[in-house]
Amino acid sequence: MDTTLERRSDGSVGPRSAVVDLAFSGGGDAKDLLRLGTAGKSIRLSWPGRQVPAPRLDGSTATYPDVLDGVDLQLTATAEGYRQVLVVRTAQAATNPDLEQIKLSVSGVGLEAAPGAGGGLRAMDDDGNAVFKGPAGQMWDSAGGAEGLAADGPKAPKTLATTAPDEGSPQTRPGNGDASAVLPVTVQDGAVIVKPALGLLRGDKTVYPVYIDPPVGLGASERTKLSSDGDRFWQFDGSLGVGKCGSANGYYCGAGYVDRMYFEFAPSKLVGKYVLDATFRAHETWSFDCDPHWVDLERTDNISEGTRWPGPRQLDQMGDRYVSAGRGKNCSPEQPDAWIEFNDNPDESDENLASTVRSFADGKISRLTMMLRAKDETDATAWKRFEDNATLKVTYVPRPGVPTSVGVIPGDGTSGYCKVVLLGSAGRHPQGSDGPGTRPDENATEERRGQGLAPGRVLDGAETGRRGMGQGVERLPAGQRLGPGRHLGEDAHNGPGRRWVVPLQGADAVALGLQRQIE
């Protein structure tokens, strides 16, 4: 994905590539402020009666300066949606009465706006499915920054020890020490409405700029980070923390709150598969110090845009790892960023990732949510940062198809019969174009000993009980596995020793004591 914004020929602005169809206004009438869609369905937001200037583009963010006096609008593209922030630069700008209620019109094609969990917003399809979700809005000031402009004058810089890398741009989320407030949404008469907290917007201790993030930042993903100080970061981008964000060993992270990170997965790509193994991978970009610390992977109840601290109920331990990565040359030896992999340790009976993902594929779990957390949430040196791109890597095989030829088994019922019709290189029966029982054509001799049948060749013919002329029948005990390379007969016409092998794909086929097609 590349969410770098570019100007399009139709005058709009959009990302170079994204999972969703996303377009921002290129300037002018704000009736086409933005459009978000997928699979032929879309939702459109407009700001009635407003004109917006042509935006300044900086990476994934489009900034529309002075949409109100002293107020900028920032729209940021993500791989799965967008974020929207109003930046109130000064106390004078905060007095504008238009900021007391922000009202955006909403319309859709195949989608309808509806209130979401915890005061958020959802775009629902005709079947009642939430195609896009957004959390409740939020606003925050700049009190936690080293610099800022307070309502009562300049603010002195804050003296800190060496600081761990910042958790993100102040335009996208509140930082350490920022005053913040949650802004629930109202959906009414084709509009979404949010009312900023005026005590924070215009307070005597407010430090500007103030950022107002209306609850209209929609996305298709299911991930969040929760903090014990009440902050939450639904559909976060980039890297955020896990563990106690405090200070230790001369390094400063935050005021001592605890972070947990959640990722939720849908089963669509695993339906009908038999899971052999599973690995959860998370990319660690920073550790508080060079010594390794334990990080846990836990299965939890599912998340939503309204999930708050302490987060959903914890259900089962999936694994843990004793690691440190991301400090680079600050450590000896050097510790670069690294993918941290959680995979079942056979020596630890409480690690259940593979069996849990198997139940997930079997439909026993509707959605699978994983939580990253520090094992010791009281130890600031165990704090780590992970990227938003965690993945679940699954090794699986397709489940066997339904038998296509079932009948009475001759004999005592303890043997199964695998029937093989060999195809020549031209895709014909080796017995010739007249079908089984005739002399093989020249193409049959092009199949050499040990070469095997290519995937897709016919393994179950229409004729039974006839040996010779290139067709073989072999008796197998019921339940015996046919591994790759199993010989299933001889070409009698060309003499003994000219044997044919069947290269099986996926799990070994099993002779079930009946006649069946092996796919």
Description:
β1 and β2 (13-17) form a beta hairpin. The chain is mainly beta and 519 residues long. It is globular, with a radius of gyration of 31 Å. The chain contains three helices and 40 strands.
What can be said about this structure in brief?
By secondary structure, this protein is mainly beta.
Key attributes of the depicted protein:
single chain, 519 residues, mainly beta, 11-stranded mixed sheet, 7-stranded antiparallel sheet, 3 helices, disordered C terminus, Serine/threonine protein kinase, PTX3
Sequence-ordered SSE layout with sheet pairings:
Blueprint: E1 2-7, E2 13-17, E3 21-24, E4 28-29, E5 34-38, E6 41-46, E7 51-52, E8 56-58, E9 61-68, E10 71-78, E11 81-88, H1 91-94, E12 102-109, E13 112-115, E14 121-124, E15 130-134, E16 137-140, E17 149-150, E18 153-154, E19 162-163, E20 180-183, E21 186-188, E22 191-194, H2 198-201, E23 207-208, E24 210-213, E25 223-227, E26 239-248, E27 251-265, E28 273-287, E29 293-300, E30 314-323, E31 338-342, H3 353-361, E32 368-374, E33 384-387, E34 391-398, E35 415-420, E36 472-477, E37 481-482, E38 486-490, E39 499-502, E40 509-510
Parallel strand pairs: 19-27
Antiparallel strand pairs: 1-2, 3-5, 4-7, 5-6, 6-12, 8-9, 9-10, 10-11, 11-24, 12-22, 13-14, 14-15, 16-20, 16-24, 17-18, 17-23, 21-22, 25-27, 26-27, 26-33, 27-32, 28-31, 28-33, 28-34, 29-30, 29-32, 35-36, 37-40, 38-39
Protein name: Serine/threonine protein kinase
InterPro entries: PTX3
